[in-house]
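Changelog entry: the GNAT family N-acetyltransferase record was regenerated in this release. Current contents:
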Amino acid sequence: MQIEIVKGVPHQYMAQLQALHAHVFEGAELRLEKLENKDGLLCLFAIEDGQLIGFKLGYIHPDQVFYSWLGGVHESQRGRGIASNLMVQQHKEVQKLGFQQIRTYGRNQRKAMLITNLKHGFDIISTFIDEKGRHKIIFEKSLD
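Regenerated structure tokens:
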């Protein structure tokens, strides 16, 4: 497995990214326009035998903290440490860009991701209810 890093919209991976996103997020669509509107978009892709098997996307949040936005691993590839590997690499890249803090949101329904965040040094700092009525947990981590 190799990790590819793309700054900006990953046009060369869009078809595979959209398919994997739909697989991970119960058919949800990831529109190109949504990616184009993210300031400082940073994309990391786990690739094996030419196939995208995992991804981690993030961007600069309006308050200038780097926001780790979306990520996932194909169900057939889970349990291999791919999400952790992508997270570690993302944090290294974000630190190289000069950020000292990273934030992400989680949902109780995705316990594996909550556990991964905690194992990688994130702290729970708050919770909120999003515009769709879902309870979300805010995680932050210092990158020093």
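The first strand starts at residue 2 and ends at 7.
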